[in-house]
Amino acid sequence: MLRTPSFQKLVVSIDNPHHILATETGVEEILHFNTDDLRRQTIGTFEGPRTDTSLFRAAIQKTGQCEPSKFQIVLYDRYGQDQNKMVTFSPYHDSSGMNCACMMTIEDSEAILLQDAVRSYRCAHALVSVEGPYHLQMINEEFSRIFGFTPQDIPGQSMNIIQSQKTDILRWCTMFQTACEGQLISGSLCLCTRWCIDIRAHLTFTPVVESPNGKVAYVLIQFDAPEELDGFAAGPGTIALPDSCESHPGSSFESSSEQGSQGVCSLGPFADYSPAAAASRGGARFAAAAGRRSDESPAA
């Protein structure tokens, strides 16, 4: 196994008590444990009071049926300190191609708890489900002010409602998928308001879990410094944003592709995007808004 700076890998037996069979070549420590010592231990070495041992062990056993998975798991280091880790469980095949063990890939988790995601943020934000059809779960007042949609508008809606013909769908999908994998990432994108005004905003995608042990269930998307593309400020202070996506330290656009079966990039909330559909939805938004706001200039 090759050394990868962002990940630590080890091979464990599928059956209880899940002995550690091998560790990543060139890695001297995992959670501050010496890898030479780990090869004589079981995964119980990483477990503690806050570890969901049932979830942890079931994920390992399911790789015996070729079922990969990924969870945030609370693991304990050599000093007894608990750490939130994103762990990928994948089938491990021997030289003959037989599925004989479980490959665990451990990385730092940048996920936040749902209770923290719903607290008040100064910037616009939306909470999106990671399960198709990627429905919006929550928006705040600043989101409504910028995009024109209210909480009453969003039931059954996805982030398609703010897409435009100028939206870089691949960039969106890559960032969304990275967050689904447990890593925080940010970058700028062109979007569209309810009144068909194209804007550029700096977006931060943060993975959200419902409990310390579990799958990423939502992605919190924050919209900073929106700027209308026609030159009119969408909010206080027009800020020129970079064209390139900037990943948070420890994350990258390639992070999802490094994880085998976990790395298929879904089109996510913009899966049904097409310019024609965007134009159609945009026209409907404009028509609906025009009747209500004929005497007003478009709000951003």
From TrEMBL:
Occurrences of domain PAS (ranges): 14-108, 138-181
InterPro entries hit by this protein: PAS, PAS-like_dom_sf
Superkingdom, natural source: Eukaryota
Ranges that cross the membrane: none
Pfam families per the UniProt record, alphabetical: PAS_9
Signal sequence interval, chain numbering: none
Gene3D superfamilies xrefs: PAS domain
SUPFAM superfamilies noted in UniProt: PYP-like sensor domain (PAS domain)
Protein name per its UniProtKB record: PAS domain-containing protein
Organism for this UniProt entry: Cryptomonas curvata
